[in-house]
Amino acid sequence: VAGRLMAHEVAHLLQAERAGLAPFLLAYLREYWGGLRRAPRWDAAAHWRAYSEISFEREARAVERAYERWRAGRGNSRTPAARTPAAGVVDSS
Fold first, then answer.
1. pTM here?
2. How many whole angstroms separate alpha carbon 64 and alpha carbon 61?
3. pLDDT digits (tens, 9 = 90+) for 20-47
4. Other C-beta atoms within 10 Å of 64: how many?
5. What is the SS3 assignment for 52?
């Protein structure tokens, strides 16, 4: 699984944990439905616009971009995760 996809989906898991699963799902669907209702036609472009405007998706895409910036800053090394310091942990070596 691509790292950025994993970052995107983990963002959704954290959103659901923060809001509660049922409220998250209801808000997600409400925003999507609202976006579709504003569209003049219900075609693929309307679906994509409605999906793209969901606040949870915007936040998850921001997490993707942050992941990509982090990844680029590491030089795309293949350092095993076990040897890579966790976020916020200072390497004392």
1. 0.75
2. 5
3. 999 999 999 999 999 999 998 989 999 9
4. 19
5. helix
